[in-house]
Structures
1.
Amino acid sequence: MSKKGKINYAKYGYLFCIPFTLAWLIFSLYPTLYTAIIGFTDLHGVNASAIHFKSDIFENYKWVLHSPTFRTAFKNTFVIWVSNFIPQIALALFLAAFFTSPRVRLPFIGGFKVLFYMPNIITASTVAILFAALFGYPMGPVNDLLTRFHIIEKPVNWLVSKAVARNIVIFIQTWMWYGYTMIIMISGILGISPDIFEAADIDGANPWQVFWKITVPSIKTILLFSLVTSLIGGLTMFDIPQLFINNGGPDNATITTSVFIYAQAFKGGYWYNRASAASMIMFIIILALSGVMFFFLRDKDEAEMRKANKKAMKELKLAQKAKGEASND
């Protein structure tokens, strides 16, 4: 509160928040609520206008959960995410520890960071089209190089193989995002007090011990952030699987839940209600998994301290209450 006779500028802060709040309400909250609602309706077709709630409001959800294509898409999504996240986080941690180590005297170190981060700047659609061209058949750079060096006798149609197509998608996801994760890790490591590393160095700790005993525990919050954001991005991946090979081929090997949702909403029968139901199912799954990660990766010491403080405050209140009652008597 401002003193009498002075201007209170705090109210202007709320005015500056209005544009963002309106944009969020119109372009984020409203579409989310509308999507949640039409999942219980019969909305489908290009010219659909009237919306009616189904007699069984969970019919669309049941259809999605019993759809073999959705099950395949969910399995592919989870496998691709796990398979690209593990090498991504491992490579990012290694590079972050390497670049922040005081023992490393590497020239042009800033340039290397830029080069590693650069794939993340390229749009996903561009990368997908690029790799589709690289593995093109019968003419493509990969086939041309392999035949030129007599590694293969004739061009191979790589993208008809389910394993090859899926592994290429996994590689693209890892290649695009490890640089971003590395930058996040570097920022977390630089936030650790140098005194801790100096003390470990004086005690004779080797780099491996410093990494596992000091660096990793100190950036647990950063790891949690990377894990949750990777989970959200991984379970909603769309650009690479959709543009690399259309329709999630070959034989649905690269179809993801987002590609499935897109196909339901904008191809064939334009089943907006089924697409909405699938979207909300993924929303609930992501929310639940994020909650589990927050629970298991929380700072247990801080949680115990908060619990102890809460218990102490409760005991203090009970003691004050008992003292007040005794004085009244």
Note: The first helix runs from residue 10 to 38.
2.
Amino acid sequence: MFAFLYEWIRNVAFYLVIITAVIQILPNDTYKKYIHFFTGLVLILLLMTPILKILGMENLSASFWKKEGLKLKMEEIEKETEFLQGENIEVEDIKIGGENK
């Protein structure tokens, strides 16, 4: 338990040091508000990790992104298939990696 707590505090401290350095390196102030917003969201996620681990939901976000990525890939494949069928090209006639499939 203490090892996890120590690692969590170390990760948050390292994140804050890196983000402070990145913000100081920025040449102008036009993007600072966007960087602050994004880094604030990531910091919230970092701070929520112990709570999610206690509740047993630490892998919840990973499974969500895998499902969303799979859904987006399937939609992309369906759109490409519809486009190819609209062009009267058979999907089986497309060469993949030098092979006829």
Note: The two ends are 53 Å apart (CA to CA).
3.
Amino acid sequence: MIIINKKKLIAISSLLLIAIFAFTFQKADSNKTVQTVTLPVSNKVVVLDAGHRKAR
């Protein structure tokens, strides 16, 4: 019979969370950035609207 007390349960869950975070950071680090083409925007107007205005 296996008995897991509160102290062991906290230790096991902490190690599991650390392993998950380490895997997540390793996975995110493997993505490489790729240079993209930039288009000229001279003589153009760019308008950004947040869209938070309430309708009347």
Note: The mean pLDDT is 77.
